[in-house]
Amino acid sequence: MKEQIRCEVDQAPPLSPERISRLRLIIHGPSGEPSLTPEMLAQKTTERLENTPQSAGHLYVLAFSSGTVKVGRTDSGRRRILQHRAEAARHGVELTDEWLSPAHTGWYQNERALIEHCESTGIRIGGNKSEYFTGLDFAAVRAFAESLVNIPK
Asked: So where are the chain's domains?
């Protein structure tokens, strides 16, 4: 029986067929058991994307009228902020402050550092994978995020 090859990537940026072919694939043998778990592949995919020079994106920090601060990364800057603004409005909450970094490489690593900073100084709400926090000062989080972004001048 031939091995079935497929790539499972959860929450990764869209990839071209050329880039997908360069990633390690999950190989399903006759038993159907993957040789790599989806988590292992997601980690390898993230590592691969982080080390690709042309992969650039933004960090963002948002403050809401509820006192919540949201941090994250995106490859579509303004569009993502508008999505958060609209979602907040549906729940009767306003976006009160926002910061969007310039596009830069290293945005995946920088987001992890930003989330770790927020975890150490605030309280995560909404589960252990949430990027929403309380007990944080927007200006302080923004300053920390800005310190992560190294843009050549």
From this structure: 4-50, 58-148
